[in-house]
Amino acid sequence: MPTQQSIQITLLKESDLVEADRICRLAFGTFLGVPNPLETFGDRSFIAPRWHSPNTKFIAARDNGRLIGSNIATRWGSFGFFGPLTVLPEYWDRGVAQRLLASTQTIFDRWGLRRTGLFTFAHSPKHVGLYQKYGYWPGYLTALMTRAPESGSTQHPPTLLSGLKKAEREQAIDACARLTHKIDKGLDLSGEIRSVLKQRVGDVVLTQTRGALDGFALCLTGPGSEGGEKLCYIKFGAVRPGTGADKRFDQLLAACEAFAASRGAAVEAGMNLAREGAFRQMKARGYRVMTQGVSMQRPHAAGFNRADAWVIDDWR
Ligand SMILES: CC(C)(COP(=O)(O)OP(=O)(O)OC[C@H]1O[C@@H](n2cnc3c(N)ncnc32)[C@H](O)[C@@H]1OP(=O)(O)O)[C@@H](O)C(=O)NCCC(=O)NCCS
Question: Which of 87, 104, 296 to mutate to test the pocket of ligand 1 (most atoms within 8 A of CB)?
Answer without folding.
Answer: 87
